Amino acid sequence: MSHLLSELDSNVEVVGVERFDTAREASTDGSTDLIILDLNLPGYNTKKDLEAFVTGAAPTPIVIFSTSESLADMRRYLEAGCRAYIPKAMNDEQILGVLRLVMAGGTYVPPYLSGVGDSGGRRTGSRVAADTAIGSLTPRQLEVLDAMAEGLSNQAIAEKLEMSSNTVKTHVAAILKALDVENRTQAVIAYNETRN
């Protein structure tokens, strides 16, 4: 991972830690640009630990790098506010692509995560609610949500859809409110579920 990070920026300084609580302490000084976590670190216990870490480290993006390819794990960590979940089975180019996306302000949701929560093709209550919420969005909000699902940052969405960054922020806030979610990762997960 240190080698890959040096490909992102030759001046990168990598700080490795051996415990989850040490990582949390190191992230609060404001000098960290990116946090990559393996949740097998000693000291990590619950999703609440991670949610507190994400809140405390904000606005520094947190990426999970894990051997687990469990859809439940991916969903749990992304819903906690992490900006990407990278299975260790991904190749170097894919990992670099995800890291570049996150460093540019984007979010990466693994494509095979869409459809989680759909029971054997039946529409669950949460799925129906998500369908209804997405159906209430304006055409422009749907365009913004679609661009969010591509992993684009607000600035990239503004350029793609030829609107100001402030307008994009307004649309994103309206989308989060309509979908009753706390962050853009949760919005993308809900959107992906309705498209499956």
Brief synopsis:
The chain has 196 residues and is mainly alpha-helical.
Number of domains: 2
Please report which band the strand proportion falls in: under 5%, 5-15%, 15-25%, 25-35%, 35-45% or over 45%.
Answer: 5-15%
Number of strands: 3
CATH superfamily of the largest domain: Response regulator
> What Rg do the Cα atoms give?
17 Å
**N-to-C SSE string, H for helix and E for strand:** HHEHEHEHHHHHH
Q: What is the number of helices?
A: 10
Taking the sheet with the most strands, its summary is: 3 strands, parallel
| Fraction of residues in H or I helices | 40-55%
Quote the average pLDDT. Answer: 79
Query: Separation of termini?
Result: 33 Å
Name the strands of the widest sheet in spatial order: 1-2-3
Structural class: mainly alpha
Oligomer: single chain
Overall morphology:
globular
Extract low-pLDDT stretches.
Answer: 115-126
Question: What name does the CATH topology of the largest domain carry?
Answer: Rossmann fold
Level-1 CATH class name of the largest domain: Alpha Beta
Query: If classified by CATH, what would the architecture of the largest domain be?
Result: 3-Layer(aba) Sandwich
